[in-house]
Structure to design on (112 residues):
């Protein structure tokens, strides 16, 4: 992977994360700085992961598909991750999945 592309992707992701944070900054007026940082970090990571998935898909999967390889289920999963990250919902989705798994494990292990 080209380090210049990763650097550009990181800068673009940071800018998009800042834009997302600033669009929601009114909701975090009275919160402490760690909460504000986490929201900025979540936006950055969401856009960065989406960019990496998109970069992989364009660089690896599209040439392979154009050479005759069939589409796989993993391509659909990558596309869903890409779309969730592009629109800023990847962090929210991962939080919801994590809380759901924690609730299931709590119910199974505790028995309530």
């Amino acid at each position: 992977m080209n380090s210049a592309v990763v650097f550009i992707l990181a800068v673009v992701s940071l800018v998009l994360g800042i834009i997302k944070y600033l669009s929601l900054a009114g909701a975090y007026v009275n919160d402490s700085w760690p909460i504000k940082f986490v929201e900025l970090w979540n936006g950055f990571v969401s856009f960065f992961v989406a960019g990496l998935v998109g970069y992989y898909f364009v660089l690896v999967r599209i040439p392979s598909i154009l050479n005759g390889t069939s589409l796989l289920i993993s391509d659909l999963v990558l596309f869903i991750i890409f779309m969730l990250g592009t629109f800023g919902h990847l962090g929210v989705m991962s939080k919801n999945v994590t809380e759901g798994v924690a609730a299931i494990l709590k119910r199974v292990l505790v028995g309530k």
Q: What stands out?
A: The chain has one domain: 3-110. Helices lie at 3-23, 33-66, 73-86, 90-110. The CA atoms of residues 6 and 95 lie 25 Å apart.
